[in-house]
Each structure stands twice: as structure tokens, then as C-alpha cells.
Specification:
A four-stranded parallel beta sheet has the order 2-1-3-4, sandwiched between helices. The protein is an alpha/beta fold and 105 residues long. The protein has helices at 19-35, 53-64, 84-93; strands at residues 6-12, 39-46, 69-72, 97-100. Helix content is 37%, strand content 22%. 30% of the residues are buried.
């Protein structure tokens, strides 16, 4: 049996309007992971963008593990502690490829 690589998720709750959208976003990350040949690991949910604790926890997991892939519902979810491009660069600096389920956003 082949082990599928792990894909981590990141979602900003403030970028969504309600709990149902948060659940749908998480479901979309799981569907993306499965379709792309990954197993979805931890989905980090940012609830307080001023603290950005979830992003920092995600970054720490990328640094200490062999996980090299992160998925977000859309790139604007990476905009909690800086620009989406800067946050993506932080992840890519640690060899984590970043995908967006909705690559048009």
C-alpha cells in the first residue's frame, strides 16, 4: 500500500460569513486533497487575525515535519498577518508548496 503525502490546510474564519461557510471551506480542502492524491492533515483555522496564532502554528508544523504542501480555499485567506504573497513566501521558504482550491480568487 502506498502512503499518500499529507497536505495541511489553512482557513481564515473572518474571510467567511458564517459557520456553514467555514464547514464548506473545510470540506473543499478535503476534497482537493483527495483529488490531488494527498491525505488532509490538520486544518488550521485563524479565528483572531490580530494574533495570527493559527498561521504561526501552521508554519511551525511545516518547519518541524516533512509536510511540504498547504492548501487554502482561496489565496486571500493568506492575508491575515501580511499580504497573501508575503505569507505564501514564508511557507515556500520552508519548502511548502501552496495551492488554492479556488485559484481564481
Amino acid at each position: 500500500m502506498t502512503t499518500r503525502p499529507t497536505l495541511l490546510g489553512y482557513v481564515r474564519a473572518d474571510a467567511l460569513s458564517c459557520a456553514e461557510e467555514l464547514a464548506a471551506a473545510t470540506d473543499s480542502l478535503a476534497a482537493f486533497a483527495s483529488a490531488e492524491g494527498f491525505t488532509l492533515g490538520t486544518v488550521y483555522t485563524e479565528r483572531d487575525t490580530a494574533e495570527s496564532a493559527a498561521f504561526h502554528a501552521l508554519l511551525e508544523e511545516v518547519k518541524r515535519s516533512d509536510v511540504r504542501a498547504v492548501v487554502v480555499p482561496a489565496m486571500h485567506h493568506l492575508g491575515s498577518v501580511g499580504t497573501p504573497a508575503a505569507m505564501r513566501q514564508h511557507l515556500e521558504f520552508h519548502q511548502a508548496h501552496v495551492w488554492a482550491v479556488d485559484s481564481k480568487a
